[in-house]
Amino acid sequence: MRYFAEFDDVDKSFEGTVPEEMRSYIETKIEEAETLLRSRVPRLLDIMAATEMDRLNARRVVCAAVLRVFRNPTGVQQQSSGPWSVTLSMDNATGVLDFTADELSVFGGGRRRKFGMVGVSRPWYV
Q1: Longest alpha-carbon distance in the chain
Q2: Following CA atoms 60, 62, 64, 70 in sequence, which dihedral angle do they give, to the nearest 10 degrees?
């Protein structure tokens, strides 16, 4: 079940048009991304209590994660063909559905309190 993003959201965020034959793949990745996001940001588990800002940020973050995998599903870092060579950023070349720290930071960002040298507060994105 999708809560934040739909196929059309991913399609609109893509620099081209997502082929219709990829619809099932994209929808599966959206569900996987939303499940992962809800496990990383527990306050998103209660959809009715989520703020409008949280829902909009969740849509953006889910679309970005899905598009990273869609653009480079095998995690290629460098590709050569004849005299041409392309090197992709490691951030985008993992081929793994995940979120960056910057993407997760929109769901929190308060300062963590420390006790001595050890942080004792909840994770910043909760």
Answers
A1: 57
A2: -150
> Which H or E element spans position 119?
strand 118-119
The per-residue pLDDT for 71 is 85
pLDDT per position as a tens digit, 83-108:
887 776 655 556 678 898 899 999 98
Rounded Cα–Cα distance for residues 106 and 101 (Å): 9
The predicted pLDDT at position 85 comes to 78
* Bridge partners, residue 114, by sequence: 119
Please, is 88 exposed, middle or buried when counting C-beta atoms within 10 Å of its C-beta (0-12, 13-18, 19+)?
A: middle
Lookup: tokens for 108 = 């929190």
pLDDT < 50 stretches in the chain: 110
**Token pair recorded at residue 34:** 């939303």
CB 38 within 8 A of CB 45: yes
> What is the DSSP secondary-structure string of 25-85?
HHHHHHHHHHHHHHHHSGGGGSGGGS-HHHHHHHHHHHHHHHHHHHH-TT---EEEETTEE
C-alpha 63/C-alpha 60 separation (Å) is 5
